[in-house]
Amino acid sequence: MSAQKSLPIKLLLGVSTVAILATGGARITGAHAQEATNDEPVLEEIVVTARRYAEKLSDAPLAINVMTDNYLIDQRVESVRDILELTPGASFVSFSKAQPEKSMRGVVAPTPGNSSSEQSIQNVVDGLVITKDFMKSGPIYDLDHVEVLRGPQGTTFGRNASIGLIQLISKKPTREYEAGLNATAGNGRDYETDGYISGPLSEDWSGRFAFNFDTQDGPTESISTGRGLDGDSNFAFRGSLIYDPDSSFSAYLKVEYSEDNDEAPVRRGNDCTKPTIDGPRAFAPLPPPLSFQHPPYSITFIDSCDVFKTEISTDRNFFFKRHVLTTTANISFDVAEGITVTSITGYMDGGDNGLADVLGTPVNIVFQKIHNDGWLFSEETRIDNHAQGERYRWLAGVYYLHDEEDRFEQNQFFQGNSLPFPRVPSFLATISSNETDSIALFGELAYDLSDKVELAASGRWTHDQKDYLYSVEASGFRPVIAGVTGCTPAVGIVCGSPANPVGFDFIPVKDSWSDFSGRVSLQYHVDDDNMLYALWSQGFKSGGFQPDARTAAAARISFKPEHSNNYELGWKTNIAGRARIALTAFYLQNKGNQTVTLIPVGAGFTGLISNLGAIRTKGIEGEWTWLINSSFRTGGSVSLMDPTLHNTVLTVGVDNNGNPVLDDLSGQRPEVAPRWTATAYMEYEYVYPGGSTLTVRGDFIGRDRVFDDFSERATRARIRPTLTNLGLRITWLSPDGKYRIMGWGENLNQDFDIENIGPSQPNTLQLPFGFSRKRTYGVTASVRY
After folding, report:
1. Cα–Cα–Cα angle for 407, 603, 508, nearest 5°?
2. pLDDT in tens, 285-344
3. Residue 605 is part of a domain; what is its CATH number?
4. 268-269 and 768-772 strand pairing
5. If you ran DSSP here, which 8-state letter would residue 27 be given?
6. Higher model confidence: residue 18 or residue 49?
7. Mean pLDDT within 19-42
8. pLDDT by residue (tens digit) across 211-254?
9. What angle is formed at CA 709 by the lines to CA 713 and CA 316, rounded to 5 degrees?
10. 11 by DSSP, 3-state: which?
11. Which SS3 state, helix, strand or coil, does residue 750 take?
12. For residue 277, what is the DSSP state?
């Protein structure tokens, strides 16, 4: 048996070995531990809001990974990507900050660059659902904790969370004055600073202000100059107020702003033994029709065997700029004894602009220009009796959403350069505008059948309507804009002109979808420290429209909704207050998954959204934390899964006559679906006689290799390799906890990751790969008042 094939088995044995040591998700130990009456340190109790009301983590009958503020700092969590890499069974890829893709339990939530679609894994920040993908992937700072809910969240949270949900909870204003400042310097010209100040403003008002700034070169360097090519810079701030005149009323008001000023993501060839582009005499001429689509360039370019070095075109300024404004008002008040009404009102407004070199070669082959502009308004009102503490508990609510997005995407081909073979400057632009109106009614009933048994049932009815406008404009080299209205049948090698492009003007499309999703849970408290539960849950994600239709007829075809059914058995335990464990066995069936396939058209490509037949995943997940003694602690997670496609036939290409090429993928593994993931950390804390502490922490993150896309699966050209990353932290903390200095290193073993794989392009001989996870190290200094 190969080492790679045996690794999941070893991980499974590892779960069985540490089952008596483990926990339900978060890490709060050592200096952050709660002291017991006998002066022995114990793990602090964790409270979550995974079911829209506060309850202990050990009482929540679902799979949930909690990352506390201390854990986020110790693990240097700075993005949603970091959160998912620390979540069992999850994975993350990204074409840019505006197009993140998340995967959980074997199902990917793609982002095709589409104003009408949403992800299957939602982001919720302080109760506000972020429906527009280009507004996600903001900085992580000044958070109280993060909750990652695995499996469908189609009832009390809802809003298209058919696979899972990431909930970020900001730190709130305090009734005592406090302040803090962190400053970081690292290799790659990595500079970061963030801080906060919080305290009372009057008898009834408290306020908090927090900010974040970071800038870095990025992992990729220019071969010729050594300068960074894909650096980023972000500035963000958050101001919040709490008004709580008495115990029956409270209001939380928040304004947050984030601004990115980045260089564009960089891609390059994967194989440094082969040319990415070929010069006039690089090798033997290619046979027709490749000789027509791949005429020689003035140079032969072969990428460096260092995956973090390449060249990009030098006569363009590539960039990504984004701004997002968020306002939220959370108001809670009692209408009767123990009956509470909660209102969450949210508004977001944002936009981005970007220009990227799609391939990463010294000559101008393909650039991509994007612009998104959008806003959303949502209102959720719910009422519950949970404060009464009765045996019979209920919750009911209504949710309304309106969002709008305008999207412009233009692929630019052969924009200048001195070339030995004539190439016509070409472009293909898609312009879309979408409005979504959604309304939902939801509720939950919970009843204590006995002191040990609780039965809960919840449901959500959702109705979505989308109004879509779409147009296409193109001109230039026929093979790269093939299929666009006015460019078929082929006449010559040029279609249209910049002044008179081919394509079609805006066409209106409208569709609507309705659904009812349910959830039933049964939990049994064996004793104060052990809880067993069974869960059935459903999820729903509404349909949408094609982002890259080449004809009006194709643009009018909407893709269908997707639905999920999840069956789950779980065990949560607390061992003497020193160890937590959560084990989950699940079976998930996702029907009609909305997936994006890159389809070759002529010498170019198009992105087609298709509904898969079904993805079925069975697996187990384990999470643990063990406070071995007052100085030594460990924790981690593991997931073993078997995701499989069923009844899935996709269009993966076209033949020479323009007919679709179909591939039956039934029985194969879905894209971006690892069979195993694993994380672990060990931490030792030494207390000096004067009271200061020195903590040494090592961590591991691992993931199985995955397919990046369904296309070209037979050639195995789109495989992201197995990932294993090692990290180290050494931290000194002053006796009063006021000062802290942490030296850190990440990906010390330099096991790079492939963040994305782009489509095949005209006039190139390799697929473009985006690499990430270079070795980084630095120092963070902190002060608290």
Report:
1. 30
2. 666 666 666 777 888 899 999 999 999 988 788 999 999 999 999 999 999 999 999 999
3. 2.40.170.20
4. antiparallel
5. -
6. 49
7. 45
8. 999 999 888 999 988 888 999 999 999 999 999 999 999 999 99
9. 120
10. helix
11. coil
12. B
Type of residue numbered 15: V
Task: Report the relative pairing of strands 614-627 and 660-664 from DSSP bridges.
Answer: unpaired
Tokens found for residue 313: 């075109």
Q: Is the pLDDT of residue 24 over 50?
A: no
- DSSP classification of residue 669: P
For residue 472, the cross-strand partners are 430, 504
SS3 631: coil
Q: How many domains does the chain have?
A: 1
C-alpha torsion sign, points 683, 723, 757, 641: negative
Which residues are registered as beta bridge partners of 413? Answer: 366, 426
The CA distance from 73 to 317, in Å, is 35
Whether 121 and 163 have beta carbons less than 8 Å apart is answered as yes
- Amino acid identity at 469: L
Name residue 257's beta-bridge partners: 237, 325
As given in the structure block, the two tokens for residue 217 are 């070169």
Residue 706 confidence (pLDDT) above 70: yes
Tell whether the model's pLDDT for residue 33 goes beyond 60: no
Question: In this structure, what token pair is assigned to residue 589?
Answer: 């069936």
CB 735 within 8 A of CB 690: yes
Phi, psi (5° rounding) for residue 26?
-100, 170
Tokens of 389: 């503490």
> How many Å apart are CA 66 and CA 27, to the nearest integer?
8
DSSP helix, strand, coil percent of the chain (3-state; round to 5) = 5, 55, 35
Output the pLDDT for position 226: 87
DSSP letter at 417 equals -
Strands 164-170 and 121-125: parallel
What whole-number distance in Å separates Cα of residue 667 and Cα of residue 552? Answer: 34
Q: What is the pTM of this model?
A: 0.91
* Amino acid identity for residue 563 in this structure: H
Give me the amino acid identity at 540.
F
Length of the chain: 785
Residue 456, C-beta contacts closer than 8 angstroms, at least 6 positions apart: 51, 61, 444, 445, 446, 447, 519, 520, 521, 522
**CB-CB contact of 641 with 616 (8 Å):** no
CA-CA distance, 138 to 345, in Å (whole number)? Answer: 20
Give residue-wise pLDDT tens across range 579-604. 999 999 999 999 999 887 766 665 55
- pLDDT, mean over the chain: 88
Residue 450 CB neighbour total at 10 angstroms: 9
Q: Tell me the two tokens of residue 35.
A: 């002291």
The pair of structure tokens assigned to 385 is 């009796």
Task: Determine which of 20-29, 166-175, 470-479, 776-785 has the lowest per-residue pLDDT on average.
Answer: 20-29
DSSP secondary structure of 739-756: EEEEEEEESTT---EEEE
Distance CA 321, CA 232 (A): 10
Name which of 708, 703, 706 is nearest 767 in CA terms. Answer: 708
- For the chain, the C-alpha Rg in angstroms (whole number) is 27
- For 325, the domain range is 3-784
Strands 309-310 and 221-222: parallel
Which single residue is written with the structure tokens 């005209």?
762
* Residue indicated by tokens 């919970």: 446
